[in-house]
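[READ THE FOLD]
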Amino acid sequence: MMALSLIFPLLVEMVHGVTRTESSSISQKNGLMSANVGDTVVLVCFNEGNVGVMFSWYKQTFENIPQLISTLYKLDNNAEFYQEFKSNTRFSVEGGQGKNNLMIADVELSDSGTYYCGSSYGNNLEFGKGVILIIKGSDSRNITILQQPVSESVQPGDSVTLNCTIHTETCAGEHSVYWFRHGSGESHPGIIYTNGDRNDQCEKSSEAGSPTQSCVYNLPKRNLRLSDAGIYYCAVASCGEILFGNGTKLDVEDCGVDPQMRILVLLSIIRTGILFCCLIILIIVYITRK
């Protein structure tokens, strides 16, 4: 399961790599969306080309393979739904004139995940970059995710540790923790599939009979670059649901001089100093011999 959940985003990137030279015809808006339980969301997808015959939507959640939600013929306005989405009236598709917009009414926590818009023609299959949908609301599982803000500004070359504290009630199976980053100006958040470094074992509440436990996960970031700036989200998959923290914003200040450039400048100064010293020594030797 995990292997397939990791492979699918890579396949999407491979498809984009192949089609990028021909300019991707799929325009998928909003790389990251958030909504509250009970809201209605619209995932926008538009096919700008004239080739695609059938449009589709896929949903992928952590640790699961992608699920086919719907298919829609280009000249048809009625989409066909599959599996658990077939009888779910909360899901609908708006078609026509290249549109393949997925609408989800009265969203639930279980609707969180990554949604991919697809277009197919013959043996060719093309995907959009994906939309990560985060559903926030009251947690029926009593899971609380706390992400601490970065207390000080960081500069290129510095190191920082992001942490995520999870307070949860125990249930069947263990929870899994994931991190992903949404950089400024990026349409598609970079997902980091890792459980992070846990400080120690999860600690249970000291109250007698309390099922609550607290776990701390760290995400170390070393030798920071300007490209590391963004919002880092901690996501928890537990008891069949996925919950997200509010995110930790990491600002990497641009001091105007890259650390590698500083080293080059320093080496240049040292070299100049050595050459100058050698020149002075040669002059002194020449004068004394004369």
